[in-house]
Here is the input.
Amino acid sequence: MTRRLSIFNVTSLVLGFAFLYLPILLLVVYSFNSSRLVTVWGGFSTQWYGALFRNQALMEAAWVTLRIALLSASIATVLGTLAALALTRYGRFPGRTLFTGMVYAPMVMPEVITGLSLLLFFVAIDLDRGFWTITLAHTTLTMCFVTVVVQARLMTFDRSLEEAAMDLGAPPLRTFFSVTLPLIAPSIVAGFLLAFTLSLDDLVVASFNTGPGATTLPIRIYSQVRLGLSPEINAASTILIGLVTLGVISATLLSKRSVLRSRRNAH
Amino acid sequence: MKERSFTKRLTSGLVPAIPYLWLGVFFLVPFLIVFKISLSDPAIAQPPYKPVFEWSDITGFFSALDVENFELLTQDDLYFRATLSSVRIAAISTILLLLVGFPIAYGMARAPERHRSLLVALVILPFWTSFLIRIYAWIAILKPEGLLTQALTGMGLISEPLDILNTEWAVYIGIVYAYLPFMVLPLYATLEKMDDTLLEAALDLGSTPWRSFWTITVPLAMPGIIAGSLLCFIPAVGEFVIPDLLGGSETLMIGRQLWSEFFSNRDWPLASAVAILLLIVLVLPIVIYRDVEARRMETRP
Here is the structure.
């Protein structure tokens, strides 16, 4: 029996995706609204984009956020990949159970707890709150997601390639860099992108660990949203959504191309 | 030669050691500090609690610890009510997520194979855009005179403006909306692998579609149902942003309580005690989730 879509299946898919995308679509549409009232349409205008770029505080916050996200995602990618290797390649090392627990726990731990505990730690060791504390906190939070992504790839990995390289006399480190790393590279990139997005997006952990001069974009947006809707936020959101969509589409195309290429090489 | 094998052992030992050390310092130690501070007294100082640890004063350290904050948590029923209401809101949201997510995942699993990866990508895509922005989008929709009211009045369905924002319903909508990918993806993963011939056989033997659904599809999808439910329930209990932006002042949730103890009342020890309370509530679901995930990882082909 070939699977056939019933009317019920089609309806639930259409309604489901409408539910997922309609709010985002409305947000984007109303960023081109000329009225200051966000929910009343007053004609097409791009004025809020101009206002956005003149908004010094928001621009500064965006810059801080970007720097934190790049730095923390880079460190998290290295640490997360090492942790994934440790979990898949090192068998039973002392304290493995604790290690597994520490890798999985931050993913489901409520953000308020992670944020509070890191802050209390930074205060206890007398580290000034600001750029670096947020970066360290985000590294810790996001490295676990990198681990899971890379670990999934390492588990389906054909180890005979590594063995072949070793049999041919390649030392372990060289085997790792010329065989293992290129093969798991797509998952490392995916892990990095995930860590980057999570850091860009985080409000709660950043709020606990922020200090003077380190206001991130989510913190800024949150404090503005609490005061009420603002068309400038709609404009900022639209730019972010556009960037993310572009990034996801190009990542998909890239991975498709690499799949096609490896298929061609296989023939 | 001996030296070389020593460096080799050293470098290979570094692979687990580095992330281990990092998580120890930035995850485990902070966690113990929360526990410690939850047992200390608040002080009007910077930082606002009594000093942490002095090696010279070990007896003083232990005698300064007390369970006062936890006694406060049990005396003031605010925290009890906040905990209960968090669990209730998270549980209702999880059920709603199952009801909304299952038909979507089922439709995806039955779609032609060439479309499936696109459908999966479409479910994941909103997850990549900011959580805060997606919740913000709902304020404009749900507020009185908002877009939902405008649309329904336009269709002539209602005459009075709907007042959903700042109610518990807005929180349910927000959680279902934000967490939907976490529910749909595990469900889809199990439904996609399902063997269709089982349903066919049941149909041939005279079972009604409704009965086959409950006796075949649901039991086979159980691992996905459990994983998806826990993946939504656990973070929903500690949720802060959604009840804060959509729930109004009436919606009581423990994550929000922790936030206000910390930021508004500046009572760090009490905030730490609330964190421990939240953790006690979640420890069982987290352990179950970890076991389910570990088993899923192992049975993977």
Remarks:
- Residues 72-299 of chain B form a domain with the MetI-like fold fold (CATH 1.10.3720.10).
- DSSP finds 13 helices and no strands in chain B.
- The radius of gyration of chain B is 25 Å.
